[in-house]
Amino acid sequence: MCSLVTKVDVAAAFGADVGAATADAGTWTFEVGGTAKAGKPMPGFTVSRVSVGLQPGQWLSAADFQKLFPKDKITPVSGLGEDAWYSARELNVKRGADNFSVYLSTDFLTYDAAELAADSIALAKIVYPRL
After folding, report:
1. Which of 55, 68, 72, 77 has the most CB atoms in a 10 Å sphere around its CB?
2. Does the residue 1 lie in any domain?
3. Cα 33 from Cα 55, distance rounded (Å)
4. What is the rounded distance in angstroms from the CA atom of residue 30 to the CA atom of residue 93?
């Protein structure tokens, strides 16, 4: 997967300095430093983290997610994968039975939420065709 998503891709989507990826069980995490399009890290933090993952056989529809987390707001995302939705700081995209996700660490809480969603979608549109 690291050949599918690069720090250049993350920088293009989020507009910030991005470090090399670290890998863990099908998820690749990038550190985003400095000021991004959506804002700056929380006071006391120098970086925030963007994780990109492909979870085989783990697709969870928006409706099923809503059953688990009824208070979370779900926003459908059109034009991406077979189905896609965004909630809080996570974008989920369906590819067959698999889930492709872009997850933002809680360090992003002080950032502009709408811009973060747009940046996550922009990253997924770069990466999804490579899956």
Report:
1. 77
2. no
3. 26
4. 19
* HSE-CB for 51 with a 13 A CA cutoff: 18
For 40, other C-beta atoms within 10 Å of its C-beta total 15
Report pTM.
0.91
Q: How many CB atoms lie within 10 A of CB 97?
A: 10
Q: How far apart are CA 82 and CA 122, in angstroms?
A: 16
> In the chain, how many domains are there?
1
Which domain range does residue 70 map to?
A: 7-130
Where would I find the beta strands (DSSP E) of 36-110? 47-55, 75-76, 84-87, 90-95, 98-104
Q: What are 17's strand-pairing partners?
A: 33
- What does the pLDDT look like over 61-88, one tens digit per residue? 999 999 999 999 999 999 999 999 999 8
- Distance (Å, whole) CA 131 – CA 126: 10
